[in-house]
Every structure is written in structure tokens, then in C-alpha cells.
């Protein structure tokens, strides 16, 4: 039995939540059945209260953010995923591929904000050679040596490996040597095959995504992990996804942050589907925090959730709100109406008004301090 003061503050009419609350407050691991019960509970506030306990236990009142810029070198993509409004076939209207100079110029615009991270992801281009991507990264590192390069999803890495006829390990080693510092969490979607066949049938499967992440972690690259929800998956599929991520994290410890991504159906072949709601978004953040007990961070990606829901998520398990995100394309092509970027001042105001303490971080969660003219990452 929980006998401390905290347990008395937990209230719910949902009897199924009580044994789960006991476990959370005793810091015991939740089972897949517990995770399913959380999804099935109508008491979102009680689930959120528990997630907030777990969040505050790890991070207290801190909420992390960073100053970052997205660079999407190409939207040409062979995969034609039904979930996606960003990818285009080569040569069709709206398709683009940046020349290297153009990509480096894009990186430089907005640099005056003292960006600490470039988030570099793009389509699976059928003709661009591996050298293009190595040169892109080398050129970014040369021009912006102090900026962390979080580049290429597991899906892109696997595609580059296939095209270059290299092993995943050698591909990752070459990318690392060129200057990749860590990997973003995209492309995980939902691991189970039945769902992948509908939303992204030409992408690597769930096991390949996980094994690519495992290899990245083994060679010393940290990564994030996403889960795309709110399309054709069911609650069991989401639980399966979370449990697989948790198992890999037990093995490697290489994941930094879990990022649940709400599906935006506009301009995709799945645009007949309902959009997620505020309550389901908040609940997904909370369940992620509770099940992924070995993930240091849970991110409320404001571009996807909207700033208002992301702010609420900071009291439902999330400890990170992502960053200034200059020039987001993937969600905006899928109908997002959020702004293209936010200033540091706007972000910190959102965080403070959620009753949290903002802490600017670099990509590896080291605090960043700024004065008028200098920028220091505290190692
Ligand atoms: O992998 C694509 C998703 C992801 C849609 O690691 C869509 O810090 C919703 O991974 N509706 C890319 N989602 C974004 C991503 C990400 C974002 C922010 C931070 C980090 C990080 C990673 O976006 C894709 C896919 O799962 N996506 N299309 C859509 N229509």
C-alpha cells in the first residue's frame, strides 16, 4: 500500500487506475496490461496527475527547450507513404532538391538567433549519391562547427545504406565521421506490420527501424524515438510500440527523448480520417511518460500539438517543448496552422505561464547560457 502524503492526493473513480497508481508511486515498472488500462481509462486528469508525478520526480519544475533550425534538403521521396503530405515524386510540381550551396545558405539564414542545433531530414531520393549527404554534413560542420547536427532518421540511414551498398553500421560510421552528432526520432510511426502496410508500406519495417537505432546507439550516437498516432492504429498497437522502445532502451540506453506525433491528415491520402483531439494528445503524452520509465525525456512538440496544447502537456508528463524550429515543412504541408517558428522569448513565456522553469539546452540536454555577445554550452 502507498502510505505517503502523495498517495492521498491521488483521486479517481476509475478502479482500474488504483493498482497502477500504487506502482507508479512505488516506482515499479508498468506492464503492457497496465498501459492498456491507462489508454482505456476515461479519467485523463488522473492519468495526467500520475505522469506529472513521474515527470517531477526526474525533472522537478524544469522544462527544456532549444534554439534549432530545420533543414529539409529534398522532398523527393520514393516511399509515397500514405501518412505523408511532404514527399513528392521526382520531377512533379512542388518537388525540390537543394544544391549543397543552397542547403548551407538555408542553414545560415536565421543563424543570428545563435542556433545550437540543425535538424536535418528529408525524402528518400532515388538518385542523390551518399557523397551528397556526406558533403552536406561536412559543409555544415565546417561552416557551423559549434552547431549540433541531429541528422537523418533511421529510415533515411537504411535507405542510404541500401543505395551505397554498405552495412547499416558502416553507413552510420561514415555519417558520424562526416559530422553527424545524433539522430532524430522520425520514421518509427507504429511498429506493427498491419498498420505499416496501410500508412507507410514502402518504408523499412519496425524491426529494421529498431535494429538501425540499436546500431546507432552501439557506435555512440544518441537518438530520439517517435510514435505517430491517431490514424488506423488501435490501443494495443500503441502499447506494442511503447514496449518495444522500452526494451531497446533497456538494452542500449541510447534514446534521449520520446516524441509522440499526432497524425495530421490534411493533404494526405488519409485525409478522410478524424484529427486527434486535445484530450487524446494530452493522454498520449502522459502514457508515454508512465510506460517509458527508462527514457530521460518526453517532448511536447509544439509545432505538432499547437503551442496551447504543448503548454498544457508540460503538466501532464512532458519536460521538453522542442525549440524555436525555424522553417518546419512536414507538418505545414499536412495542414498545420502553427507559426513557422517561435522566438526564445515566446517559448520561455509559454513555459513560465505553465508554472515551469525554462532551461535552454543543447541537443544533449546540457544547459546553454547566453550573454549579449557569447554563447556557452556548459559541459
Ligand atoms: O517520421 C509525417 C511524421 C515525422 C505526417 O527527433 C507526420 O527531435 C503527422 O520525426 N502528420 C518527422 N506526422 C518529424 C519528426 C520529429 C519532429 C520533431 C522533433 C524530432 C526529434 C523528430 O513526422 C515522420 C512522421 O512520423 N509525419 N507526416 C503527418 N501528415
From TrEMBL:
InterPro entries: Aldolase_TIM, CofH/MnqC-like_C, F420, FO_synthase_su2, MqnE, rSAM, rSAM_sf. It holds the Pfam family CofH_C. One of its GO terms (molecular function) is iron ion binding. Binds 1 [4Fe-4S] cluster. The cluster is coordinated with 3 cysteines and an exchangeable S-adenosyl-L-methionine. Its EC number is 2.5.1.120. Keywords: 4Fe-4S, Iron, Iron-sulfur, Menaquinone biosynthesis, Metal-binding, S-adenosyl-L-methionine, Transferase. Its cofactor is [4Fe-4S] cluster. Residues 63-296 form the Radical SAM core domain. The keyword Metal-binding applies. [4Fe-4S] cluster binds at residues 77, 81, 84. This is Aminodeoxyfutalosine synthase.
Amino acid at each position: 500500500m502507498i502510505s505517503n502524503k502523495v498517495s492521498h492526493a491521488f483521486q479517481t473513480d476509475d478502479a482500474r487506475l488504483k493498482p497502477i497508481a500504487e506502482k507508479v508511486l512505488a516506482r515499479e515498472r508498468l506492464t503492457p496490461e497496465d498501459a492498456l488500462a491507462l489508454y482505456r481509462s476515461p479519467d485523463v486528469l488522473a492519468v495526467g496527475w500520475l505522469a506529472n508525478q513521474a515527470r517531477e520526480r526526474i525533472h522537478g519544475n524544469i522544462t527544456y527547450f532549444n534554439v534549432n533550425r530545420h533543414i529539409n534538403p529534398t522532398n523527393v521521396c520514393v516511399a509515397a507513404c500514405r501518412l505523408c503530405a511532404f514527399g513528392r515524386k521526382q520531377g512533379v510540381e512542388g518537388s525540390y532538391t537543394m544544391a549543397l550551396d543552397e542547403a548551407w545558405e538555408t542553414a545560415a539564414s536565421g543563424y543570428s538567433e545563435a542556433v545550437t542545433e540543425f535538424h536535418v531530414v528529408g525524402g528518400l531520393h532515388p538518385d542523390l549519391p551518399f557523397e551528397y549527404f556526406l558533403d552536406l554534413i561536412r559543409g555544415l560542420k565546417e561552416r557551423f562547427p559549434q552547431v549540433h547536427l541531429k541528422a537523418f532518421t533511421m529510415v533515411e540511414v537504411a535507405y542510404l545504406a541500401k543505395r551505397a551498398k554498405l552495412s547499416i553500421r558502416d553507413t552510420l560510421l561514415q555519417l558520424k565521421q562526416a559530422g553527424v552528432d545524433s539522430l532524430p526520432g522520425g520514421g518509427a510511426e507504429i511498429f506493427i506490420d498491419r498498420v505499416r502496410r496501410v500508412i507507410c508500406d514502402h518504408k523499412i519495417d519496425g524491426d529494421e527501424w529498431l535494429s538501425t537505432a540499436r546500431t546507432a546507439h552501439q557506435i555512440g550516437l544518441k537518438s530520439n524515438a517517435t510514435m505517430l498516432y491517431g490514424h488506423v492504429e488501435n490501443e494495443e498497437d500503441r502499447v506494442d510500440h511503447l514496449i518495444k522502445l522500452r526494451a531497446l532502451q533497456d538494452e542500449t540506453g541510447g534514446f534521449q527523448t520520446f516524441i509522440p506525433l499526432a497524425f495530421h491528415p490534411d493533404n494526405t491520402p488519409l485525409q478522410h480520417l478524424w484529427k486527434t483531439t486535445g484530450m487524446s494528445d494530452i493522454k498520449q503524452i502522459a502514457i508515454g511518460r508512465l510506460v517509458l520509465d527508462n527514457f530521460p525525456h518526453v517532448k511536447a512538440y509544439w509545432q505538432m500539438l499547437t503551442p496551447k496544447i504543448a503548454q498544457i502537456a508540460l503538466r501532464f508528463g512532458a519536460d521538453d517543448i522542442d525549440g524555436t524550429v525555424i522553417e518546419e515543412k512536414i507538418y505545414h504541408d499536412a495542414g498545420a496552422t502553427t507559426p513557422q517558428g517561435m522566438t526564445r522569448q515566446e517559448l520561455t513565456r509559454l513555459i513560465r505561464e505553465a508554472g515551469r522553469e525554462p532551461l535552454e539546452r543543447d541537443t544533449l540536454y546540457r544547459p546553454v547560457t547566453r550573454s549579449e555577445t557569447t554563447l556557452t554550452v556548459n559541459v
